[in-house]
Every structure is written in structure tokens, then in C-alpha cells.
Amino acid sequence: MKLKYLLYAVPALMLAACSNEEPAIGDAGADGAAVVTADIAGVMKSRAHDNVWDAGDRIGISGTSGTVDYINVPYSTTGDGVFSAANGIENGIFFQNKETATFSAYYPYKAAVTADKTEITAVTADQSKSKEFDFLFASGATGSVANPAIKFTGDAAFSHRMTQLVIKVTPDNNSGFDASAALTDGVSTLSGLKSEGEFNTATGEATATGEAADWTLNGNVTPVTEESTITFAMILFPQTVNGGITYRIEYGGAVYSCTLTPALAPGKRYTYNVTLKKTGLTVASSTITDWEDEPAQDIDAGMEPAAPSTAPRF
Asked: Which of 263, 269, 262, 271 is nearest to 291 (CA)?
């Protein structure tokens, strides 16, 4: 196949190729330039990181029309879900024949992606950088000279390819905790998760790699405190966790723990409501959102007799 990073419109050549029965390619859009709109499945014109497209957000679009490949062409938005060629219209996608082209796209755009290098590697340990690994993927959008609007909507809309884990911790008022101190001074740790992984921009598959390790949430995940509840929200690579995930909180010289058993599937958000009690942790409910809810489940956990795990941390 003939490989091109992008195609340029050449109006004189296009007009010369037209007969009286065939409209000029330049009659469609701006000289046949593609116009792109994009939605996230389930949430109109939004993405996972902060629920809105930010001004300047970029997606990388690829597709094939006849014998021509379009590879990783960057398109950006002002924040309204309408995308235009990031490097100027002359560096965008142009339709130069009547064939219908089919496109896929991913977010966030990386210039290093090529036809031979479609993977993006990332590490999720520092959640302040979650916008860099909040991977989205869309496929099946079409366009042509007659219809230059490439719409990543409906069945072709973007979908979440990572998974999200949310832990909400509330001290039990009947256990004599100083709720404010427990939330401020408690050190939270997760065990059994992999932080490294890669995202394939051609298939939309996100895969965890490397080894599982202990992960201290304090300092790596910016918590949200509301009244007497502290919430840790994390975007992670989908992965199978054998034996579940151990959540620990160390406070007042004691360690409290429980086991969480999310499937960590792509596009799902798993929420656990954890109650900190003198007798241990209680997981009051668990939900999944699509980010889709699933039925709640109750899990109890006792106080650990030993010191926290000394396994490697990330």
C-alpha cells in the first residue's frame, strides 16, 4: 500500500479530474477537507479525566481510502467536541476520490506513533499525570468527498480503554476516631496492582505489564475530602488481580485492611465505600459505572496483627 502521513489538496488537479457529470472534489467542505466531531460513549462530548474536552486536546486519526493510508494525523478541539487539523488545514485529511474511507482514532495524541510503532507505554503510579494515560479509542467512522464529516459518534464513539478504581474511606463515629485526624494522618496502601502498561493505538487495547507491587496512595493520588470522607480516584491499566487487591490504612499505630475484588475491565469504574472501625475495615458497597454500576457487595476486614508489608513499592 502507498503510505502517507497525510494528504494535501491540490485544487487544480482535482478540478482537472472532474467531468460535467462529476462534481469537483473541492465542492465538498473546504476543498474536500475532513471535518471531525467526537463523542465519548455514554457521555456526550466528554472524556474520563475531567468529563470535558479541554481546549487543545488532540486525537490521532488513522484510516485507509483505496490504496492510501492516513497514519496518526493530529486533530485538535477548542473544547466543544469539534476537531480540526492541529497543524493547519493544509496538513489535515483530504478526500481525493469518491471512495469511502473508514477511520479510527485514539486519545491522547502522541507524535511518536507510526504504522510500525502503534504502542504507547505509560506508568500510572503518579495519578497527577492521569491525563497522559486516560486512553480513549474510537473506530468505524467513515467519510468521503460527498460526505467529508468524520463523526466519531454513536457506534463509532470514543470509549474508555482504561479502568477506574475509586475508594471512599469514612471513619466510624462509634469507634472513637477523630475523623479529621484519621483522614489527614492515615496512610493508605494498595497491594497487588501493576502500574506499568501499554496502549495499542491501532486496536484500542490497554494492557498492564511488569510486576505487581505495594502502592502508597498518599502523595501519588490527590484525595478529595468531603465532610468526614476521603476519596481516592485512580485511572489504571485493565488487569487480572489474582487473590484480589489488599487495601490497608495505617493510623494510630494500627493497620486496618480488607480485600477488594474488582475485575478491572476496560471502561469500568469500580467504587468501594470503606468504613474505618476499631475492629477493622468494612466495605459497605461496591459499584461499577461506565464509567456502569454493578450490584453492591459487603466485605469485612479485621485489624492486622503485624506491621505493614515491606514488599517493593511504586
From this structure: 269
> In a 3-state reduction of DSSP, which class is residue 18?
coil
CATH topology for 163-304 is Immunoglobulin-like (2.60.40)
DSSP secondary structure, 105-129, as one string: EEES--TT--SS--EEEEE-S-GGG
Non-local (6+) Cβ contacts of 157 within 8 A are 38, 39, 40, 41, 138
The dihedral sign for the CA sequence 162, 135, 149, 52: positive
Closest among 111, 130, 133 to 121, alpha carbons compared:
133
Question: Using one digit for the tens of pLDDT, what is the confidence trace for 256-284?
Answer: 999 999 999 999 989 999 988 877 777 76
Residues of the chain with CATH 2.60.40.2630: 163-304
Give the tens place of pLDDT for each residue, 171-221: 887 777 787 888 889 999 999 999 999 999 999 999 999 999 999 999 999
Q: How confident is the model at residue 53 (pLDDT cuts 50, 70, 90)?
A: confident
Question: Using an 8 Å Cβ cutoff, are 83 and 150 in contact?
Answer: no
CATH code for residues 2-160 = 2.60.40.2620
